Amino acid sequence: MVMVIPYVPTYITVHLGSPSDGAANVTVEFIDYVKNVASSEIYPTWDEAALLANILAIISFALNRVYTEYYRSRGYNFDITSSTGIDQKFINGRSFFDTIERIVDRVFNDYLRRIGFVEPLAAKFCNGTTATCNGLSQWGSQELAQDGLDALQILQYYYGTDVEIVLNAPMLAYTPSYPGTPFQLGSQGEQVVFIQAMLNRIAVNYPALPKIDPVDGIFGQQTEAAVMAFQRVFSLTADGIVGKSTWYQLVRLYMAVTKLGELESQGHAFSGYSWQLTEPMVVGARGESVRILQYMLVTLSRYIPNVAPITIDGIFGQNTRAAVIAFQRFAGIPDDGVVNARTWQLIYDRYAGIQYNVVHQTRTFTPPHAVETPENIREVQRLLRDRLGPVNPRLANVAVTGQLDEATRNALRVVQELSGLEVTGELTPETVAAIVVAVDQLIFTNNSYLAQAATQTLREGDTDFGGGTPTWL
């Protein structure tokens, strides 16, 4: 639940019964799980729009169970059940229909969410004949498809017009949200932000809990006091330490008060706060939205040249405006220092990508004085060849040698040229940062400022730029 970035698990563990049954668990590839459920729930002869709509609902519901740790936070050792009363129909060992299999192969890492929020939609459904529900009607979706509606129109008919499809979510092995190490006085980092945000949201429903202000990622005395109050209310050892039991009690309560596993979910946004702006943010603005903006800018300042680190104080002053302008210039959008919806979204996209690479993948580079080590060079070469090469052929002819050979230097010159850096062919810290940011953009926004130019051949699935017009177009 506390992850900001949803991912598609490589495998999913299914309990072959209701949660309390002493049934067996089976672990299967997520893509095969979707094929199994779809083949068990819907008819392969339906129109493709209906099949696609139902398959996306199946994917999204399963991902919501994983994302919210719906069962694991309750102490179970599985992600979802085969009970159709609460989850989806899964028949262990069954075969798949060819029509369904082809669609699932294409869309298994796409899912639904509400615009402005993060978590996969808890896309409930029923057959629409013998059973009805607050969600998609399976037979009704087929009727809508026959009337000419496409898959998204069908989904929005049942779930609302604020539903969108997220494409090509990253895949990872299942990783428990609890990192394995307790948090206590003196702890710092993104996970502490999550703890503070969860406590503040839970406090809305449980006024006995003190609010934490600011939410700054630092486990200070205020956070310790809130944790102890939470532990006392929920009969945990009141030691002020967030160990595994306290962590998952927080997850369960946060999920309950925000209804993340329901269609009427309030939505999980950045660290529990909505990142969908209601009005532009300018100099003089104050509050939690400003603090979140500053937190993201500080993170970006470590990776994007010219974005200077700033103080996280919740006040939009001149230093914050300067950092916003520096980012806008980097992103190729108007540099007016105003944080409108577009600027905010682009900042969040880059921040989210960096968090995925650095926090979840623990990918880091050696400090600048030792950048050109064989290990770092190989990592950069892999990123150039495997991640950026497919969208920019000028970056594809790189071999993973651990040496700064001419092909690698030529690719670095391309990166530097398109990033507005000095074109030297050297592996500078700024060049490494530009490569990492470009890879992040591809993962989270399906575009990159290093993507191929209009004069090059476009490929199926390519998208336009979200960050303005690059200088080379």
Explain how this protein is built.
With 473 residues, the protein is mainly alpha-helical. It folds into 4 domains: 8-172, no CATH class; 190-272, Muramoyl-pentapeptide Carboxypeptidase, domain 1 (Orthogonal Bundle); 288-360, Muramoyl-pentapeptide Carboxypeptidase, domain 1 (Orthogonal Bundle), CATH 1.10.101; 368-445. The chain has helices spanning 30-41, 48-67, 98-107, 138-146, 151-159, 190-205, 221-233, 244-258, 288-301, 318-331, 341-360, 374-388, 406-419, 429-445, and strands at residues 8-9, 11-15, 25-29, 80-81, 111-114, 125-126, 136-137, 163-166, 171-172. Strands 3-2-4 form a 3-stranded mixed β-sheet. Helix 1 (30-41) crosses helix 3 and helix 12 (374-388) runs parallel beside helix 14. 41% of the residues are buried.
Round the Cα radius of gyration to an integer and report it. Answer: 24 Å
Discrete helix count: 14
Order of strands in the sheet with most strands: 3-2-4
Strand content: 5-15%
The CA-CA distance between the termini, in Å, is 41 Å
Query: Helicity range of the residues?
Result: 40-55%
In short:
This protein is mainly alpha-helical and 473 residues long. The chain has helices spanning 30-41, 48-67, 98-107, 138-146, 151-159, 190-205, 221-233, 244-258, 288-301, 318-331, 341-360, 374-388, 406-419, 429-445, and strands at residues 8-9, 11-15, 25-29, 80-81, 111-114, 125-126, 136-137, 163-166, 171-172.
